[in-house]
Write a structure and sequence with these properties.
Helix content: 25-40%
Strand content: 15-25%
Number of helices: 12
Low-confidence stretches: none
CATH class of one domain: Alpha Beta
Distance between the termini: 21 Å
Structural class: alpha/beta
Strand order of the largest sheet: 8-7-16-17-18-15-19
Bound molecules: flavin-adenine dinucleotide
Shape: globular
Length: about 425
Amino acid sequence: MNDAPLVHVIGAGLAGLAAALTASEAGLRVQLHEQAPRAGGRCRSFWDDKLSLLIDNGNHFVMSGNAHALGLLRRNGAGVQALIGPDEALFPFYDHANGARYTVRPGRARTPLWALQRGRSVPGAGFWDFAEGGALLGAPAEATLAQVIRRRGPLWRGFWEPMAIAALNAAPEVAQARLLTPVLTRTFLRGGAYCRPLIAREALGEAFVEPTLRALEKRGAVTRFGVRLKAIEMHNGRATALHLGDAQIALGPSDRVILAVPPARAGELLPFLTPPEDGEPILNAHFRLEEEAPHPPLAPLMGVLGAATQWIAVRGTHVSLTISAASALAELDEDILLPRLWEETRAALQLPVQLPYAAARIIREKRATFDPSPANVARRPAAKTALANLWLAGDWTDTGLPATIEGAIVSGNRAGALAAA
Ligand SMILES: Cc1cc2nc3c(=O)[nH]c(=O)nc-3n(C[C@H](O)[C@H](O)[C@H](O)COP(=O)(O)OP(=O)(O)OC[C@H]3O[C@@H](n4cnc5c(N)ncnc54)[C@H](O)[C@@H]3O)c2cc1C
């Protein structure tokens, strides 16, 4: 009989999945409990009858420099081929305001001199625009991106603003500047090999979620769905029992808990915690085309400026749009949104005017990420808690990274390792 210590992991989002796998790899027995009928949390895939497509709740893109995200794909057996992207770093852009098209092509060198080469960077951006980016490295914790980067030229509109919105899900006037630093140092500032944009080949679940569940099962871990953690009993600085669904599970002296639920839920379960608050919604629109776009973009992911649409992902006849920091649009009816977003898509992808879409669907994620304002970032807790046998995981814990796949997996790996230590 395996008498290794048992860890209960609560929440089967990417943080919980990474935590469970790490703890299992370290020899712990693992029970993973998830309140929803499926795993994945904010990064989940499902079959949509209206579209007749397997879709994700939202487009997610990762960069080739996201070592922990790619590491999970190697560990869970899916392999990095579960993601697709161009062989070299390239970001096609379409500017809806003036119809301009250009492609940002980071060079391979670590020193970003490529940014000054014509044809590689944001048109019109000059040396001083880029030089100002250095200020980010020493940015104080209380400064927003808009306070640190002050020039409002082409680089602002073509890089800083879309970067803040995509990576931090907030306008640069709101988001902490420092939160963007590790994103840049792990990708653009390491050279082209580290900033290839990648999306799931088929769907996120096929890459990150299902293979991890299978890897856990092979290791003897038990996963239970439809089980909500309602309360945690505590005594003498330890968690002593879990109220899981209708059952009350007493924790033995060597039993451990990893709480990998969203911040608001963690705050309800642990009264000593003041977690960060939720930020803005992210809105995704999915279109199924009658036929493939005749002029597909150079990469499966295309940036859009001057429009409501920010990023377009193209996989054959499936076209999906992302709009982050979407408070202004989140409440609008589909009847108003869809024609506008379809018009932007058609222009960006140069689709023939007469080409209709076969089906469309909008998904709004209201609690997409934590609010990345400086005051709120200061509330991110460490993985260790006041309870000696309970650790936190989740993209909102203090990883130094924004609320991303990479951040969630880093937090899960860390909590899993701490529980096993
Ligand atoms: C629309 C959208 C687009 C995004 N785009 C990107 C992107 O392009 N790139 C990127 O890197 N990141 C992106 N993200 C962010 C990324 O999805 C998240 O950072 C990541 O999925 C968070 O994982 P998590 O495990 O920390 O949290 P969650 O996914 O929220 O997992 C928490 C889990 O806990 C469960 N749970 C909650 N309460 C309980 C309870 N009481 N008992 C049991 N289980 C419970 C939940 O059901 C959930 O499954 C996006 C997010 C959204 C919503």
